What does this fold into?
Amino acid sequence: MADPDATLAVICPGQGSQSPGIGLPWQAESVWDLVTEASDATGVDVGHLLTEADADELLDTANAQLSTYVISVVIGTALAERGIVAGHVAGHSLGEYSALTVGGWLPLAQGAELVWARGLGMRAASAERLGTMAAIIGLDPAALTRLCEAEGGVWVANDNAPGQVVIAGDPAAIEAVGVAAKAEGARSPMTLQVAGAFHTPFMSSAREPLAAALEAVTFVGGASTPWANVDASAHLSTVEWPDLLSRQLCSAVRWNDEVAAMVAAGVTTFIEAGPGSVLSGMVKRIAKETTRSSVSTPADAEELAGS
It folds into this structure.
């Protein structure tokens, strides 16, 4: 395997990027063996989720997270097999787990079990307390934090890019903050297709099952430098990651700061490994001077390897 490229980061998308049939292009590839490994580890038919499940089945929190995790790992592994090895790895929310596996820090079988437990815990938390998420375009996090605190029951959940922030919490509170934000110049809120108010105190009850799952995981030192959502920093100590992942559950994803910090650390190229190109679009807004690409099929990987 090639040495890691210190100027390259592989980034992995989070929940919401999944769609029916995302695994179909990879079934004939050798990396499809990873799907079988994940299925064996969790007792879930991951191959079904990636090739046959419809949109409604994939909207389920646990299914969405496991399928997105596995397909990103499949793609990241395929890139490495083609000589594209990143010096840095990062992911958005659930994508952080994919990134840790791609970077060599979290073994696939343990990662799949961990992600499945996380998804089940978040599904249960969402059923206990109705919540949702909405994207607000045109206001910065500080302004939205002020509006959220004034309303109550709603928080900034994702600082994605300049002028692109996601709030989460009680649906009525989100609507009220959306009205206030629009009065201050923001666009109308865009409700996200998720089943709960992720990265807020609404997910507190999911911490216990996640903590139990984390206790069974052995993190190992990988070849790529992993970056964390909660503090937008690199962490090279294996003992830090259980706490970082636990905190991430109810804390805002600082993607804007995280990408800026990676650029400051010397990253000039970002490759999105997973379905869609949402993260690549965010990186463009954060750091226009970087090179960006997305890989969701073997053809994409071959084209990138040959360029």
About this structure: Residues 5-127+201-306 form a domain with the Malonyl-Coenzyme A Acyl Carrier Protein; domain 2 fold (CATH 3.40.366.10). The longest helix spans residues 61-81.
